[in-house]
Amino acid sequence: MATDVRGRLKANINLLDVIEKLHPTAAVAGTPTAMAEQLISELEPFDRAGYAGPVGWLSSDGAGELAIALRGGIIEKDQIRAIAGCGIVLESDTEAELAETELKFKAVRYAFSESN
Question: N or C: which end of the chain has fewer CB within 10 A?
Fold first, then answer.
């Protein structure tokens, strides 16, 4: 599911300002944001790297199109680090969320496999 958001920015605001205000989204980081980020840094034994970061394009005239990276890969020298995850909320079915994350990892592994 996705929701497109369109609008016009004030003259003194650019797309990078919007990204700064929207990232990280509450759906993947939690809310209130500052408290959620603190808990994540204390509880998760790894760096989220580019997970849930904005990906897309920006033009020199300020236009752009962005999405949230809920799966992907980071290539460093001769290694690929797969990133994927899900948003857990109080009502989440954790088994279903884990299954969804495993499917996301499967897609990333396939994209970088030799057989692809």
Answer: N
Burial class (CB in 10 A: 0-12, 13-18, 19+), 94: exposed
Cβ distance 84 to 111 under 8 Å?
A: no
Angle at 67 between CA 90 and CA 115, to 5 degrees: 100
Beta strand 54-58 with 64-68 is antiparallel
Angle in degrees, CA 61, 66, 72, rounded to 5:
135
pLDDT per position as a tens digit, 24-69: 888 788 888 889 889 989 998 888 888 888 999 999 888 888 888 8
Q: Computed from CA positions of residues 29, 21, 58, 41, in that sequence, does the dihedral angle turn out positive or negative?
A: negative
CB atoms within 10 A of CB 19: 15
Q: Is the pLDDT of residue 108 over 80?
A: yes
